[in-house]
UniProtKB/TrEMBL annotation:
<keyword id="KW-0472">Membrane</keyword>
<dbReference type="InterPro" id="IPR011460">
    <property type="entry name" value="Lcl_C"/>
</dbReference>
<keyword id="KW-0812">Transmembrane</keyword>
<feature type="transmembrane region" description="Helical">
    <location>
        <begin position="20"/>
        <end position="42"/>
    </location>
</feature>
<dbReference type="Pfam" id="PF07603">
    <property type="entry name" value="Lcl_C"/>
</dbReference>
<protein>
    <submittedName>
        <fullName>Leucine Rich Repeat domain protein</fullName>
    </submittedName>
</protein>
<keyword id="KW-1133">Transmembrane helix</keyword>
<dbReference type="InterPro" id="IPR027417">
    <property type="entry name" value="P-loop_NTPase"/>
</dbReference>
<feature type="domain" description="Lcl C-terminal">
    <location>
        <begin position="576"/>
        <end position="688"/>
    </location>
</feature>
Length: 689
C-alpha cells in the first residue's frame, strides 16, 4: 500500500495537494477505505514535504532517525549536569513537554512576548532531534500556523547566506541548530553570537540550540541579546533559557515500545535488560538510540562494562566522524586517551582531598592535554569529549559511572595504578573492574588446553584440571597448578571468588608470591612445592597431560619420562628421608619383596598400625610424588634415584590407578613411567606429607 501511495504522490503531485486529496479520496471511496487511505496519504505527503524542505541541510536518514521513534522531549529550568548522574535530577527540577509549549504558546500571536529562546543540553540529549520534531509538528498543524518556519544547522557551510535569503522575516520562525558546531562560534562565541543576533533580529521568533558545556560557565550562557525593546515596557530583549531533560523510566519504556513492536517482544526484553545494566547512561536519548546496535551484535551482554564499552566507543566514533572524517582513527584514539587520562587525574585529586568533587577547571584542560601529549584543541576537549561543564566553568564526566569505567579499565591494564586505586566510594568502578577481569583474564585462562593441575569444588573431590566452563569457576575452592607462568596475569585469580587455597607445585619467587597474594581473595592462602596427594584414576589418553610426560627411548623401547625434574633437597633421618623441596617424608627402604597391588595396600596398613618411624598416616605416593624422586641421569647406585635411598625398590607402585584392574608405577631402573595390572608384582616405598 505504501509503495502504491508513494507512486501516486510522485505522479499526481503537480495537481497540488487539495486536488490530489480529492482525487485519491474518490478512488479510495470505491474501495471503502477513504479514511485510511487519506491518513496514509497525508503522512507520506508530509514526510516527503519535510525531507524536501530540509534538503540539503539534513539527510533523509537523519530525519528518519529523529522522527520515527520520537519520544516527547521534556525540558526543565535547572541544568541536569548539576548532579553526578543525570537521572537523579527529576525530583529537583520542574519538567514539562517542550514542543507543546512552543506550538501552543511561544509561536502563537499574543501568547508570549519573548522573541529569543535558547535550548541547552549536554552531549547526546537530543537537541537536533527536538528541533526536527518541532519543525515537523509545526508543519503538520491543520490550523493555527500563521507563520512559516525554517530550520538551519549552524555548522552548515555558508548558512548565513541561506538565512539572508528569507524575505518575509517578520512572519518567519527561525530554528537554529547547534551553535556549538558553528565554525565562527568555536573561534569566538561571544562575537559570533552578537553577529548572529543582529542577522536574525527581524525574525518572528528565534530558537537556538547549543551544548551546555560549550559556554565556559553558567554565567556566560546567553542571557541578554543586546537588542532593545521599544514601546511600553522598554529594556533589553532577553533569551528565555531551557534545559532538555534526560529520559525518565517512563520515557525509556515508551521508546522501547515504539522501537520494538509486539512481534518483537524478545528484542524488547533484551533491550530492557541492557537498559537495566546501565540505567544512568540510557537516560540520554542518543545513547538509547544505539540499543539496536547492541542487539545487532547478536551476542549477550552479560556484564554492564560490555554495554558501557560499546556505547562509549560509539560515542567517540560519532564525534570523530563528525569532526575529523579524514582521520577518524587518530581522532578517536586521542579523544579516548584524553577521557581515560583525565579520569585518572580527577580521581587522584579527589582521593588526595585536594578537591571535594570530581571536577577540573576549564583553565586546566589545555595544560593537562599538553602534559599528556594529547593533540586535541581546547574546544574539542571541552565540547566533544565526555565532559560536561558545570555552572562555575568546571568540567566533569557526563556520568560519574563513565569516569568509573575509565578508572576500572586503567586499573586492569596498569599495575601501578591498580595498587593506587581505592574502591571506597567507587562501587561501580569496583564492579566494572571485577567484570573486566572475569571476561578478559579468568575465563580465557581456564579455556586453555595446556593447563596442568587439579582443582576441587565445595564437595572436596579432586578433579583433573582441563578446560572448564565459566559456570564452574566461581565454585572452585582449591586450585593446584604445576607451574605459574610469568606471562599469566595474576588478576585472573580474583575471578575465583570462593578460592580458599592455591597450590603451586613449582615454587615462585617471593616477589611473584606477593603479587599473587595481592590478587587473591583475602581469605585465600598460597602453598608452594606441594605435589598432589589425593589419588586419581588416569587413563592412557590423559596421562601425558595430567602427569606431565614426554615420549622417550630406553634401548629400543618407547617409554614415558617426566617433562621436568625437581631439584630435590634431601635430609637423611635414619629410617626416613625428608625432601625439603617438596615437603615430603619418605620411607628410606620399602617393602622387602615384590607385592601385588592388594598386598601393597596391606603393607601400608601394617606400617600405620605399627606406627613406623612414629607416624600412622603413611600412604602410597601419587604419581607426581613418586616421579619427584626420579633423577634425569643414572646415579652411582645404577638407578635413576638418589643413593640416599635403598636400591632394592626398583619398580614401585603408586596410589594412582589406570583402571579398576591396573595402576601406575615408576621404573627406577630405567627412569621412566608405566603401568601394570594389579596382579603384577612390584615394590612399595611409602610417603607422608
Amino acid at each position: 500500500m505504501n509503495d502504491i501511495l508513494q507512486y501516486l504522490i510522485e505522479k499526481l503531485a503537480p495537481l497540488g495537494y487539495p486536488k490530489l486529496v480529492t482525487l485519491l479520496m474518490a478512488i479510495a471511496a470505491g474501495f471503502g477505505s477513504a479514511a485510511t487511505l487519506v491518513t496514509k496519504l497525508y503522512k507520506l505527503y508530509q514526510d516527503r514535504k519535510l525531507k524536501r524542505s530540509l534538503h540539503p541541510f539534513y539527510t533523509d536518514l537523519e530525519i528518519e532517525r529523529a522522527t520515527r521513534y520520537y519520544v516527547e522531549t521534556k525540558c526543565q529550568n535547572v541544568a541536569p549536569s548539576q548532579d553526578e548522574e543525570p537521572g537523579r535530577t527529576y525530583a529537583f527540577a520542574a519538567r514539562e513537554k517542550v514542543i507543546p509549549f512552543f506550538l501552543k504558546k511561544a509561536f502563537k500571536p499574543h501568547q508570549d512576548d519573548c522573541q529569543f529562546y535558547i535550548v541547552l543540553a549536554d552531549s547526546g540529549m537530543g537537541k537536533t532531534t527536538f528541533l526536527l520534531n518541532l519543525y515537523r509538528r509545526y508543519h503538520e498543524q491543520f490550523f493555527g500556523a500563521p507563520y512559516q518556519i525554517k530550520l538551519f544547522p549552524l555548522g552548515f557551510p555558508d548558512i548565513d547566506k541561506e538565512i539572508e535569503k528569507i524575505e518575509d522575516k517578520a512572519n518567519t520562525i527561525l530554528l537554529l541548530d547547534a551553535f556549538d558546531e558553528d565554525h565562527q562560534a568555536v573561534q569566538d562565541y561571544k562575537k559570533r553570537l552578537q553577529e548572529l543576533i543582529l542577522k536574525v533580529v527581524h525574525f518572528r521568533e528565534v530558537v537556538l540550540t547549543c551544548r551546555t558545556q560549550f559556554f565556559p560557565s553558567e554565567d556566560e550562557e546567553p542571557h541578554e541579546t543586546g537588542v532593545m525593546r521599544f514601546g511600553g515596557e522598554g529594556g533589553e530583549r532577553l533569551f528565555r533559557k531551557f534545559y532538555l531533560s534526560p529520559f525518565d523510566a517512563q520515557d525509556i519504556r515508551v521508546y522501547l515500545r515504539k522501537r520494538f513492536s509486539l512481534l518483537q517482544r524478545a528484542k524488547r526484553r533484551k533491550a530492557q535488560q541492557i537498559v537495566e545494566s546501565c540505567p544512568n547512561l540510557m537516560v540520554r536519548p542518543m545513547l538509547l538510540s544505539y540499543i539496536e546496535d547492541l542487539l545487532k551484535h547478536d551476542r549477550p551482554y552479560n556484564a554492564a562494562f560490555e554495554v558501557y564499552a560499546e556505547l562509549i566507543n560509539r560515542w567517540v566514533e560519532r564525534e570523530a566522524r563528525k569532526v575529523a572524517p579524514d582521520r577518524p582513527d587518530d581522532y578517536m584514539k586521542q579523544l579516548y586517551q584524553f577521557s581515560r587520562e583525565i579520569a585518572v587525574d580527577l580521581y587522584r585529586r579527589w582521593r588526595s582531598e585536594r578537591q571535594s568533587s570530581l571536577l577540573i577547571s576549564g583553565r586546566e584542560i589545555q595544560p593537562f592535554a599538553e602534559k599528556h601529549g594529547i593533540k586535541l584543541s581546547e574546544m574539542e576537549m571541552k565540547s566533544r569529549s565526555l565532559l560536561n561543564r558545570s555552572a562555575r566553568e568546571e568540567y566533569k564526566f557526563s556520568h560519574k559511572s563513565v569516569l568509573e569505567y575509565f578508572l576500572a579499565e586503567e586499573a586492569v591494564f596498569n599495575a601501578a595504578f591498580r595498587q593506587e586505586l581505592d574502591f571506597d566510594g567507587m562501587d561501580q568502578a569496583k564492579a566494572f573492574f571485577e567484570e573486566m577481569i572475569w571476561k578478559n583474564f579468568t575465563v580465557p585462562f581456564f579455556e586453555r588446553s595446556d593447563l596442568n593441575g587439579e582443582y576441587s569444588v565445595k564437595d572436596g573431590k579432586t578433579r583433573v584440571l582441563t578446560r572448564l566452563p565459566a559456570k564452574v569457576l566461581p565454585e572452585i575452592t582449591t586450585l593446584k597448578l604445576q607451574e605459574w607462568k610469568a606471562e599469566d596475569e595474576v588478576l585472573l585469580l580474583r575471578g575465583l571468588r570462593n578460592l580458599q587455597q592455591l597450590h603451586l607445585i613449582k615454587p615462585v619467587t617471593s616477589a611473584q608470591e606477593q603479587e599473587l597474594q595481592a590478587a587473591l581473595p583475602e581469605t585465600c592462602e598460597i602453598k608452594m612445592g606441594l605435589l598432589r596427594r589425593e589419588p586419581l584414576t588416569i587413563s592412557d589418553v590423559d596421562a601425558v597431560k595430567v602427569l606431565g610426560l614426554k615420549p622417550a627411548k630406553w634401548e629400543k623401547f618407547d617409554v614415558w619420562r617426566p617433562l621436568e625434574y625437581i631439584r630435590n633437597d634431601y635430609e637423611d633421618r635414619g629410617n626416613v628421608v625428608f625432601d625439603r623441596a617438596t615437603g615430603l617424608l619418605w620411607q628410606k627402604s620399602g617393602s622387602e619383596g615384590f607385592l601385588t597391588y592388594e598386598q601393597a595396600e596391606e603393607y601400608v596398613d601394617t606400617l600405620n598400625r605399627e606406627e613406623f618411624a612414629g607416624f600412622y598416616d603413611w600412604r602410597l605416593p601419587t604419581m607426581p610424588e613418586l616421579m619427584s624422586l626420579l633423577e634425569p641421569k643414572k646415579q652411582s647406585n645404577g638407578l635413576y634415584i638418589n643413593s640416599v635411598f635403598n636400591s632394592n625398590q626398583t619398580w614401585c607402585w603408586s596410589g594412582d590407578k589406570r583402571s579398576s584392574s591396573s595402576a601406575w608405577l615408576v621404573h627406577f631402573t630405567t627412569g621412566d613411567v608405566g603401568w601394570c595390572t594389579m596382579d603384577d608384582m612390584n615394590s612399595v616405598r611409602v610417603v607422608r606429607s
